[in-house]
Design a protein that fits this description.
The two termini are about 35 Å apart. Helix 2 runs antiparallel to helix 4, helix 4 packs parallel to helix 8 and helix 14 runs parallel beside helix 15. The chain contains 16 helices and eleven strands. It is α/β, with parallel strands linked by helices and about 350 residues long. The radius of gyration is 19 Å and the shape is globular. Helix content is about 45%, strand content about 15%. It has a single domain, classed as TIM Barrel, CATH 3.20.20.210. The longest helix is centred in the middle third of the chain and has 25 residues.
Length: about 350
């Protein structure tokens, strides 16, 4: 029997249902800004071991909830688990970011990609989801996630992080048919992966399109949004008698929010370069919005943080359908007490927008 949720504000907000205040969580809320996370990562030996050990992934998922009254937990994992499971060779080098040992750059490389079986190839993730749900015991919902096919594809083709996306944009403009084949493969794998997370107990899922904003409008619609829409249409949308909401987030995608709202997603993430008032007008209240405090605000003193929280809440305005969050992940060197000041400000200031 499923443990009833004690706090379902996050899920209700994603479905634009009434809530007494604005729920919140933080992207990268389990991460390097917390000393307890750094201690657990040191115990794991390296980042990949941390991701691949369900007990440790569960521990770091729960750590921020012990510090802050947040309204959701997010699975601790990485967007590059799929390339790792596809046998492309994933390593994380200190100060350098991820590296793919065997980049995919030719038709032959694409042909050689195996079919992903999440319960076989990514069992450590689904085991972590099951363990986290058990340990949460209904405290708050659990978010599962994956990277968008375009974003994961940039790492797969480039072989790691990139500033100008030389190889994948060369493929996009010079060999678009091959890139579509790669993105279709990643889309099938990502859909199956997210459905496996939902089956294991994820109560909402989010697709992170970190590099969609690097595309032109036409290329974004063809090579990123199209595949995210396919994922949305292929997801299991009910579990435990509740809807499983889907959040799409394209960093730098403020101009495309109306198009994103047409995918069937329940909510859209908004970064800090777009006012929530403009975002809300663009989507005409068809979907919920998540965001969008500039993460660098958390370097400021608590009174300045409170003022910026107030500005974000006022920008969304009255009514339901807002999940407060940062506009991207929390920076590693932010003092935890500054994150606490943000959480307290949301709790204090948001109820006025729900009466």
């Amino acid at each position: 029997m499923t443990t009833p949720l004690q706090n379902d504000l996050f899920l209700r907000a994603l479905l634009r249902q009434p809530t007494p205040r604005t729920p919140l969580w933080m992207m990268r809320q389990a991460g390097r800004y917390l000393p307890e996370y750094r201690a657990t990562r040191a115990r794991a030996g390296n980042f990949l071991n941390l991701c691949m050990t369900p007990e440790l992934a569960c521990e770091v998922t729960l750590q921020p909830l012990r510090r802050f009254p947040l309204d959701a937990a997010i699975l601790f994992s990485d967007i590059l688990t799929i390339p790792h499971a596809l046998g492309l060779g994933l390593e994380f080098e200190a100060g350098e970011g991820p590296r793919i040992d065997r980049p995919v750059r030719s038709a032959r490389d694409i042909d050689a990609l195996p079919t992903l079986d999440p319960e076989r190839d990514l069992r450590y993730v689904t085991d972590a989801v099951r363990l986290i749900r058990r340990e949460l015991n209904g405290q708050v919902p659990l978010i599962g996630f994956a990277g968008s096919p375009w974003t994961v594809g940039t790492y797969v083709v480039e072989g790691g992080s990139s500033k100008n996306f030389q190889h994948i944009k060369g493929m996009l403009y010079g060999a678009p048919r091959e890139l579509h084949r790669l993105l279709a493969h990643l889309t099938r794998a990502t859909t199956d992966y997210l459905n496996a997370q939902i089956a294991a107990g994820a109560q909402a899922v989010m697709v992170f399109d970190t590099w969609g904003g690097a595309l032109s409008p036409a290329a974004y619609r063809e090579f990123s949004l199209r595949y995210m829409a396919e994922i949305v249409s292929g997801l299991q949308r009910e579990a435990d008698g509740r809807r499983v909401p889907v959040i799409l987030f394209t960093k730098g995608g403020g101009d495309w929010l109306a198009d994103m709202a047409n995918t069937g997603a329940d909510a859209l993430g908004v970064d800090w370069t777009t006012d929530l008032s403009a975002a809300r007008a663009a989507v005409a209240d068809r979907v919920a919005l998540q965001g969008n405090l500039d993460p660098s605000v958390l370097y400021a003193p608590p009174d300045a943080i409170r003022a910026e929280v107030d500005r974000v809440l006022a920008s969304y305005g009255h009514g339901h359908g807002h999940v407060f969050n940062l506009g991207h992940g929390i920076h590693p060197d932010v003092p935890p007490e500054h994150a606490a000041a943000m959480v307290a400000a949301v709790h204090e200031l948001s109820p006025q927008y729900h009466v």
